Amino acid sequence: MRGKLELMAQKLGLSETVKFLGSISQNEVAEWMRKSKCLLLSSKSEGMPNVVVEALASGIPVVATDVGDVSAVIREGVNGRVVSANTDTTADELAKALNDVLGQKWDADVLRESVADFDWKHNAGTVVEIVGR
Predict the structure, then answer these.
(1) N or C: which end of the chain has fewer CB within 10 A?
(2) Segments forming the whole domain that contains residue 16
């Protein structure tokens, strides 16, 4: 869909603002995270999306659809916003939430602290506990 999305961005006058990066290295991902003001995750389906934890650990607030374990990580007003997924109003809700988050001041240290427990050792222990049941 890249070609269609690039054409849409051009028609909307967003070619200078919207960037389609394609596949990039982990270092480049980290660099883009540092430059970002917010992460928007508009998935229809997820498990536990690492990108949400990575963004918060980078001090970036998150707006995401309520899929998978997103609601276990994002706390309303503390580190971002969650909106309903797969409804007729999801796009409008995402736009409003994104506008709200971008208009708010966020404390990067609070955002980082909100995911302090999401380290590999803790996550692996949780998986072992669940699988061992």
Answers:
(1) C
(2) 1-29
